[in-house]
Amino acid sequence: AQRVTQPEKLLSVFKGAPVELKCNYSYSGSPELFWYVQYSRQRLQLLLRHISRESIKGFTADLNKGETSFHLKKPFAQEEDSAMYYCALSGRGSYIPTFGRGTSLIVHP
Amino acid sequence: EADIYQTPRYLVIGTGKKITLECSQTMGHDKMYWYQQDPGMELHLIHYSYGVNSTEKGDLSSESTVSRIRTEHFPLTLESARPSHTSQYLCASIGGRAHYEQYFGPGTRLTVT
What we know:
A: globular; B: mainly beta; 4-stranded antiparallel β-sheet; 55% strand
């Protein structure tokens, strides 16, 4: 069975502070991992995927297979980063993603 | 423009009514999904489809049904709406070169009075 855990329901930081949204997963094979973001009054959209190894809007996420983690990081948070963030996992060959419960990020001015 | 569309965006309806939430995508994706999500909460998969004439129930027990007669269209029907069905319903799809990435529609916010 696959599982995604986002331990923080809410993360509150000040503008310019570093941000780390935690995501731990449980999966026996090789996972495909994603971070999705949902800004206020906007649709859920992909932020980044582990296979791309890219930085989007200053966010990065590294897959740590030893710790089974895929934490999302940004060195300097901006107010426009305030949103709901969901970590998701798909097993290779499975098209049924498992989502974490989400973390609400609030960046104060 | 290639996108995923949901109608209506907002719906207020009385208990016992039959309703259909529409979802269409113009991306040619073969896999489509319905999720239920309360605002700021986790997503619950209620139905999915891997292609025409293929439909499966998801993890969340639901009194809804779906159909997939055309690739681009994946409607969700509630035969008899109840207040417990009040929620946001998200449609999503997967396909093309982004094999596992989901594209989401804007959602339908349903209120049953």
